[in-house]
Amino acid sequence: MFFSRMKLSSVAGFTRRFGTGLHAGANIVDLLRAEAKQGSARQRDALNDLADQASQGEQLHAAMKRSGQFFPPLLQSMTRVGESTGRLERTMFSLASHYETQLALRRAFIGAITLPVLQLVAGLGVLSLLIWILGVLTPATGGQMSDVLGLGLRGPTGVLIFWGYILAILAMIFGALWAFSRNVAGVQNLIPLLYMIPGLGPSLQTITLARFSRTLALSLDAGLDPVRSIQLALDSTDSDYYRAASDRVEQAIRGGATLSGALEAASVFPDDFISRVEVAELSGTDAESIDGLANEYDERAKTAMRAIAGLASGLVWATMILVLVFFVVRLLMSVMGMYRQALEPI
After folding, report:
1. Model pTM?
2. Which of 150, 210, 219, 323 could tie 297 with a disulfide, CB 3.0–4.6 Å?
3. Burial level of 228, CB count in 10 A (0-12/13-18/19+)?
4. Are 237 and 102 in contact (CB under 8 A)?
5. Region for residue 256 given its phi and psi (left: phi exceeds 0; alpha: psi -120 to 50; beta: otherwise)
6. Do residues 134 and 312 lie in contact, with contact meaning Cβ atoms separated by under 8 Å?
């Protein structure tokens, strides 16, 4: 299926509504039937399957597991713990808050770069119009209009070629991002180098640590064992670089290591984060202490997301300005050249 996993906005809405329904005392099957009336076709099918299995006495987490990868692993594991402890309602509300925070961060980033992107597209549209005009108009002396942009592009064909170049550049950018997200050729092993980029690197690391610590806090609070909790938290980073540390963490915990000791054995976390986890452990139970740490990193993540959005916005602005300045200079040079030719003695 094209949508192989439930969208973030969908899972946030589902957990919030499901928790509210449970709090009101509604029947689980009825809630699932109601949820199956909205969302994508894949989502409706998955929720109808859940309702069918729940009506036959199947536990919700087991039914989710049979749906493959559609439901996020965190949702599946937390649902299992919520059902076994009788705290499914509380679990759903906790998950809803977690997913809503992630969704708010994503929307804030998109909102921050929307205007600069639209302005860049508008600038490219102006250049496209100029290229089209160069092919349509004919000078009084005959022939073609002077190529003031210096690209050798004129008319509708020139516009198509121009946008072909733009799309090729975008394809390379998105291809690189896709390859990184899928860890093609182990490219995620370069994450430590990425974190060294001033401004961008520390912000990305902070957002990743915020997601990790929040998932860890949710898992521990729900009653999951430390090994499974850390595994889920590592998986929540959506990075094979962090997931690869799962075995090292498990070995450390089974060897008697504390939570901070296990994270140190993972060899993927910065020293200051491990120190904060160690201090948090000394101040209370694992669930309570990590929850406080997660709250702190949630706030840091908001600041980091604003920083990344600012960098992205600045990059778009800089690109737009450089492109427009380049073509304005080319245009002025072309016009000045025509004036010089006109002033030369015959």
Report:
1. 0.78
2. 210
3. middle
4. no
5. left
6. no
Q: Distance (Å, rounded) from C-alpha 285 to C-alpha 306?
A: 32
Tokens of residue 182, six digits: 């899928």
Give CA–CA dist 22/33, Å, rounded: 14
- Give the span between the Cα atoms of 261 and 274, in whole angstroms: 8
Structure tokens at 183: 């860890």
CA distance linking residue 109 with residue 117, whole number of Å: 12
**pLDDT of the chain, 346 residues: tens digit per residue:** 445 789 999 999 999 999 999 999 999 999 999 999 999 999 999 999 999 999 999 999 999 999 888 999 889 988 988 898 888 999 999 899 989 988 998 898 888 888 888 888 888 898 899 889 888 876 666 666 666 666 778 888 889 999 999 999 999 999 999 999 888 988 998 999 999 999 899 999 999 999 899 889 888 888 888 898 999 899 888 899 999 999 999 999 999 999 999 999 999 999 999 998 888 888 766 677 788 888 899 899 889 988 988 888 888 888 878 877 887 887 788 778 767 777 776 5
Contact (CB, 8 A) for 90 and 20: no
**CA gap 186, 194 in Å, rounded:** 14
